[in-house]
């Protein structure tokens, strides 16, 4: 298999009770380098069984192959509930540059979740997967805490509420001869993102102006640092620009888990990366809710030019 140029990190030292100090140090060095450069890496030996990941992809495929009217039964009706995220089944509107459909859930037990009644396997596999992703999310957060040299548990104590995380199954339609955009280039508006994809591939990350494919590797999970880590670290760590390109003649299936922040939180560059080292802040302080609402409005009513979509540069301070 062609190896991707995104670094792969072995997480087994973090599950080793005896404490493999050397292995942990090595992983922390690789992750730090990846976050300074691409903002992307893959993890292996992360504790989520490959079987479970494959099963999740299979069940999502079964669901996405249902006729539209069947899938729409798992979409909340407009005006129902107070959820501001597009929960359940959604397909990108025709005018969107993104060509995909997805199925989004909050943590198991959330009253917002809507699962297809005739496919209980999808619910059970997603509810099995979800807490495992939360576990990897908090492990990765503590690793990134160390990579940034923050006081022990700083990020954990700041990001202390898990009900704003979400997980989604994605289906990208086969490309046509004239058009192959799956998700247009963007940065993620959360803390840390985790993705696993089937063998079709199509996820690409931009580095030095070039698009680098994230080559699928069975059982591995792609990790990327997202906007809130970029802001808190005053752009020391990179929320990388990425996109999904569709393949001709082939559907692609993937899952994403978005480790997030409570929408009531305020985010700003930390003193460790500004005042304490004599650097001006590169971002204004902002509330997560405001940023998320602007991004969602963009998704529902995309601007005429995709480059006019709101991203984290909205809060950038010219230095
Ligand atoms: O499906 C993928 O590989 C990535 C999806 C993605 O970038 C996103 O939802 O933000
Ligand atoms: Fe993304």
Automatic annotation (TrEMBL):
Domain Fe2OG dioxygenase: 163-261
Region Disordered, residue ranges: 1-21
Protein's UniProt keywords contain Mitochondrion: no
Keyword Secreted recorded: no
GO MF term set: metal ion binding; oxidoreductase activity
InterPro entries: DIOX_N, IPNS-like_FE2OG_OXY, IPNS-like_sf, Iron_ascorbate_oxido_reductase, Oxoglu/Fe-dep_dioxygenase_dom
Keywords: Iron, Metal-binding, Oxidoreductase
Pfam family, one: DIOX_N
Family assignment from sequence similarity: Belongs to the iron/ascorbate-dependent oxidoreductase family.
Protein name listed in UniProt: Flavonol synthase/flavanone 3-hydroxylase-like
UniProt source species: Rhodamnia argentea
């Amino acid at each position: 298999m062609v190896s991707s140029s995104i670094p792969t990190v072995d997480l087994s030292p973090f599950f080793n009770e005896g404490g493999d100090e050397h292995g942990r140090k090595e992983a922390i060095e690789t992750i730090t380098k990846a976050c300074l450069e691409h903002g992307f890496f893959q993890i292996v030996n992360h504790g989520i069984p490959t079987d479970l990941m494959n099963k999740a992809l299979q069940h999502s495929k079964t669901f996405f192959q249902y006729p539209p009217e069947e899938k729409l039964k798992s979409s909340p009706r407009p005006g129902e509930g107070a959820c501001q995220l597009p929960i359940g089944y959604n397909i990108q509107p025709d005018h969107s540059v993104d060509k995909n459909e997805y199925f989004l859930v909050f943590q198991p037990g959330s009253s917002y979740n809507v699962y297809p009644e005739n496919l209980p396997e999808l619910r059970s596999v997603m509810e099995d997967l979800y807490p495992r992703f939360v576990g990897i999310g908090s492990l990765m957060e503590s690793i990134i805490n160390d990579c940034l040299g923050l006081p022990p548990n700083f990020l954990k104590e700041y990001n202390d509420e898990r009900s704003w995380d979400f997980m989604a199954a994605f289906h990208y339609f086969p490309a046509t001869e004239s058009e192959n955009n799956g998700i247009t280039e963007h940065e993620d508006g959360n803390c840390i993102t985790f993705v696993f994809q089937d063998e079709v591939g199509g996820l690409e990350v931009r580095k030095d102006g070039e698009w680098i494919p994230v080559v699928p590797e069975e059982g591995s999970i792609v990790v990327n640092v997202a906007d809130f880590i970029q802001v808190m670290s005053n752009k020391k760590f990179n929320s990388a620009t990425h996109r999904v390109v569709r393949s001709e003649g082939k559907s692609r299936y993937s899952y994403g888990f978005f480790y997030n922040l409570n929408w009531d939180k305020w985010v700003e560059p930390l003193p460790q990366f500004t005042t304490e080292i004599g650097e001006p802040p590169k971002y204004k302080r902002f509330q997560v809710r405001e940023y998320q609402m602007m991004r969602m409005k963009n998704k529902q009513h995309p601007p005429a030019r995709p480059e006019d979509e709101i991203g984290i540069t909205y809060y950038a301070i010219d230095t």
